[in-house]
Design a protein that fits this description.
With 228 residues, the protein is α+β, with helices and mostly antiparallel strands. The protein has 2 domains: 139 residues, CBS-domain, CATH 3.10.580; 70 residues, Histidine-containing Protein, Chain: A. The chain starts with a helix and ends in a 14-residue tail after the last strand.
Amino acid sequence: MRVEDVMTTDVQTARPEMPLKEVAEQLSERGISGLPVVNGEGEVLGVISEADVLVKEARTALRRPGLLTRLVDPADPRAQLKLEARVAGDAMSTPAITIAPYASTAAAAGEMLEQGINRLPVVKNGRLVGIVTRADLVRAFARSDAEVISEVRKQVEYLLALADDFSQVDVCLRDGDVWLTGRVRRRSSAEDLSLHVARIPGVVGVVSKLTWLEDDAMRPRRRPLVHS
């Protein structure tokens, strides 16, 4: 599954000159935790989040020992700019961490966890086209068994075709685990199927009972399999 399958395309954004008061109102009214900041051409300049607004809000309490260092680094000019910010462009976090619409949801989840962020602006040809959040990915993982098994079967067919292996693989879903049974042409195909099926949202685990005719574990792969 790709980011474009789960992202929101009707994205609320902020302009660099938007007052922080208005940013806070937008976040509160819409029940969201951050906004992409874009210019007139739709290019993403940064992201302004609740945390960025809170740094400004907490400025009057920064005399308390240790509080400032937990919020911002006072030696960082960018941090000082956040403290003095009056508009989104000064308070936003930049550069924005973005993702492409054709990236996998697994890649999006990994990026969010690694960066410790809750959302990713989705950018195509340099322009904002959507936004994907942790909630979007959780909803994808919570899909029905019928939706999950349908995508698994499509992926299995696609990956076997890429490997020039037209074996018949049986697929079933039990308590979130995908079971793969049958015989494929090469061992590498069996291993790749397990790896890529495990990345499909809604799959808890993979139990592979696949066997193979040719053990090519020590040979170079003929063609790398690509997860779409």
